[in-house]
Specification:
single chain; about 500 residues; alpha+beta; Amidase signature (AS) enzymes; about 40% helix; globular
């Protein structure tokens, strides 16, 4: 048995395998043994694919991660002939009939897929809870959330089951669980990685795929392997590579804008989240970067308003496709409440509301581009809350009321004509903000790259990620900086 499995990252395992110091079967068996021992506690893996994996290691494997155990998120990342539920009772037991393009590129990089990881229904929650599979629990405290929607992948990486796993990000779904679980998570630039051939899940360009990992270099090497345009996509990032090479290069003196304000959405953030930003600022200054306090170059409520309108419109379109395929009765009897309410909101909105939100998204991109003419990096919290107790993250009656408000024609008029704060009725919006409290959506709307770096811990040893946003198509600068931070304040030794 390969006892040192957990001490290596993905590239390290691939190097051992390439030199013949360990056999693929030994590495895979070590990953499966760890999964069998730990997964009952955290519920990160919902579909084991052990037979598939054992068959794959009999084939010749090549690529930077040849022979490295890997897990796929159980949404959007279709693997032909294997189950994919999208976190929904509607799809439980269905087999994928094709490989998603991103999965084809993962496989070309040499990984050995041996399971699918938990996700909320259609990835529409900052917490990984769904009725079909239950909740994924945080490896650092199993009474708390692992974040979402890629919480299953992040928890598996944090627990040492795999060194890296696939993830998606529509509004923070890579960075939020990376922050909650103390791992590294980078959301690439819009169009950097493929999203097809099922573009229905692209969410107007807000969704992107990549990985969560324990080390920066694994993330960079996988992006080298997967980046590039694909047929049919309306989005394509400017050509870029050399991401792994960037992790060995000094970033130079960066101009860093940092926001240490203690509130988000008008609510006080947890002290550990504020302290994480201050700690990061001091660390950056100590590394020679020019750090300046800045105001956010956007209005948080308008970002939230734009994101939820676009998400609702997309959800309505997805649900309509499902109704045509399965019939309305089966769909509405299977879908969870959040999905149904968001779809209702999307249906109630006039077309010009969605179009207006698209225009506002463009304007946000211009604001961010203007900011990055003066600064190289923006530093803000990934989340304003430490990982929440699982008992507190179920959808409450208040949030149902808000979604029902937005789903009504009266609510849609408020969204259309007023600032979001004008839609507050009996404090409902503040209560929704209390549930969300994350600052990740801006990167999805503007298409810029962003990463959560595990630089801080609470007094109770819970992880707190720090979010770094970069200019459009400039993942290289983020990888250079992340590698420097990893060397200055290592987190890899924590497990």
């Amino acid at each position: 048995m390969f006892a040192n499995y957990v001490h290596y990252d993905g590239l390290g395992l691939a190097e051992l395998l390439a030199r013949g110091e360990v056999r693929p079967r030994e590495v895979l068996d070590a990953a499966i043994l760890r999964a069998e021992r730990i997964n009952p506690e955290i519920n990160a893996i919902v579909t084991p694919l052990y037979d598939y994996a054992h068959q794959r290691i009999k084939e010749p494997l090549s690529g930077p991660f040849a022979g490295v155990p890997f897990l796929l998120k159980d949404a959007h990342h279709a693997l032909r002939g294997t189950p994919m539920s999208n976190g929904s009772r509607l799809h439980k037991g269905e087999l994928s009939t094709f490989d998603a393009e991103i999965v084809r590129r993962y496989l070309a990089a040499g990984v050995v897929v041996f399971g699918k990881t938990n996700t909320p229904e259609y990835k529409l929650s900052p917490h990984t809870i769904c009725k079909v599979w239950g909740a994924t629990r945080n490896p650092w405290d199993v009474t708390r959330s692992a974040g979402g929607s890629s919480g299953g992948s992040a928890a598996a990486v944090a627990a040492g089951i795999v060194p890296l796993a696939s993830a998606t990000d529509e509004g923070g779904s890579i960075r939020l669980p990376a922050s909650a679980c103390g791992v590294f998570g980078l959301k690439p630039t819009r169009g950097r990685n493929p999203i097809g051939p099922d573009f229905g899940w692209e969410c107007g360009g807000q969704s992107t795929s990549h990985v969560v990992s324990r080390t920066v270099r694994d993330s960079a090497a996988m992006l080298d392997a997967t980046a590039g345009a694909e047929p049919g996509s309306p989005y394509a990032a400017p050509p870029g590579d050399g991401f792994l090479a960037a992790t060995t290069q000094h970033p130079g003196q960066l101009r860093v804008g940092i926001s240490t304000a203690g509130d988000a959405f008008g609510l006080r953030m947890d002290s550990a989240c504020v302290e994480a930003i201050s700690v990061a600022g001091r660390l950056l200054q100590g590394l020679g970067h020019r750090v300046e306090e800045v105001s956010l170059p956007y209005d948080e409520w308008e970002v939230f308003r734009t994101w939820i309108i676009l998400a609702a419109a997309d959800t309505a379109a997805v649900v309509k496709r499902l109704e045509l395929r399965y019939g309305p009765k089966k769909v509405h009897g299977s879908l969870e409440e959040v999905v149904r309410l968001l779809a209702a909101m999307g249906r109630a909105m006039p077309a010009e509301v969605s179009a207006s939100a698209s225009h506002e998204r463009r304007e946000l991109g211009v604001k961010m581009a203007s900011f990055f003419e003066r600064y190289d990096v923006l530093v803000i919290p990934a989340s304003g809350r430490i990982p929440a107790p699982l008992e507190n993250v179920e959808l409450t009656g208040t949030e149902r009321g808000l979604l029902e408000l937005f789903g009504s024609r009266a609510g849609s008029r408020l969204l259309r004509f007023g600032r979001v704060r004008e839609a507050v009725i009996d404090g409902q919006l503040e209560r929704l903000a209390e549930q969300v409290m994350h600052r990740t959506m801006v990167a999805n709307l503007s298409g810029i790259p962003a990463m959560s770096v595990p630089l801080h811990r609470t007094e109770n040893d819970l992880p707190v990620g720090v979010q770094f946003l970069g200019r459009f198509a400039d993942e290289v600068t983020l990888f250079k900086l992340a590698a420097q931070l990893e060397q200055a304040k290592p987190w890899r030794v924590r497990r």
